[in-house]
């Protein structure tokens, strides 16, 4: 089910000021209290679904009033934006040292699959939060939509950039193939279709990289 607005989306007078970025929806500055509320909202959204969780429940879970939530965030939609943006930021921070520790383009690509496996085990047992959110929010006018699609576009660009030194002529095609492998593994993990989905995807990615390296060397 999708919608252009989530529950509690109406903006209230006196809502906290927001900042607009050039690359995505506006963000709000988070006070310590707002951060606690966001952590509560994040747990609820991920475990129960975005549409199933209302502002009253978030306020109760966070130990704040409903008015405080609207004062800090302005709307439920903005809480959803902050929830998904926070997940994306934490994933990128989780991945960065893994990429830094890998010494070759080949190893960096595989490090993405390894990091995803560890991230999913630790932080996403129910599947990718972006994929789950898109199942509920597929309206392009929703302010969180750009967070969802932007995160996946970032992953596609990452894979393409990582393989370019290995196979310059086919980097775009190979990057898309790796992206499909990665995203399919995330879905399989979340649905518990079979164990070790990301390890299997890593093995297939390694085979693709070896073939691409051989073709580039012989060409």
- Topology pattern, helix = H, strand = E: HHHHHHHHH
Give the overall silhouette: elongated
Residue share in helices? 55-70%
The helix/strand class is mainly alpha
Percent strand: under 5%
Low-pLDDT residue spans: 1-22
Biggest beta sheet summary: none
Report the C-alpha radius of gyration, rounded: 19 Å
Distance between the termini: 49 Å
Number of strands: 0
Provide a descriptive summary of the structure in words.
The chain has 219 residues and is mostly helical. It contains 9 helices and no strands. Helix 1 (32-48) crosses helix 2 and helix 7 packs across helix 8.
Please write out the topology:
Elements: H1 32-48, H2 55-62, H3 66-73, H4 76-101, H5 105-123, H6 129-136, H7 145-163, H8 171-191, H9 197-218
Helix pairs in contact: 1-2, 1-4, 4-5, 4-7, 5-9, 6-7, 7-8, 8-9
Question: Which short descriptors sum up this protein?
Answer:
single chain, 219 residues, mainly alpha, 9 helices, elongated
How would you summarize what this structure contains?
This protein is an all-alpha fold and 219 residues long.
């Amino acid at each position: 089910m999708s919608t252009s607005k989530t529950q509690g989306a109406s903006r209230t007078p006196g809502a906290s000021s927001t900042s607009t970025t050039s690359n995505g929806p506006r963000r709000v500055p988070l006070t310590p209290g707002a951060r606690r509320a966001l952590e509560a909202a994040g747990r609820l959204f991920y475990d129960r679904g975005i549409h199933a969780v209302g502002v009253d429940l978030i306020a109760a879970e966070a130990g704040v009033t409903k008015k405080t939530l609207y004062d800090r965030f302005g709307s439920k939609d903005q809480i959803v934006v902050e929830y998904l943006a926070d997940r994306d930021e934490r994933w990128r921070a989780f991945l960065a040292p893994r990429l830094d520790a890998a010494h070759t383009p080949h190893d960096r690509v595989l490090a993405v699959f390894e990091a995803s496996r560890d991230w999913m085990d630790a932080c996403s047992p129910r599947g990718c939060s972006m994929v789950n959110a898109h199942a509920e929010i597929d309206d392009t006018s929703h302010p969180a939509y750009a967070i969802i699609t932007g995160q996946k576009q970032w992953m596609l660009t990452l894979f393409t950039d990582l393989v370019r030194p290995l196979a310059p002529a086919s980097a775009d095609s190979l990057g898309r193939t790796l992206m499909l492998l990665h995203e399919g593994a995330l879905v399989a993990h979340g649905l518990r279709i079979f164990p070790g989905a990301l390890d299997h995807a890593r093995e297939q990615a390694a085979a693709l990289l070896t073939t691409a390296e051989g073709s580039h060397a012989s060409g």
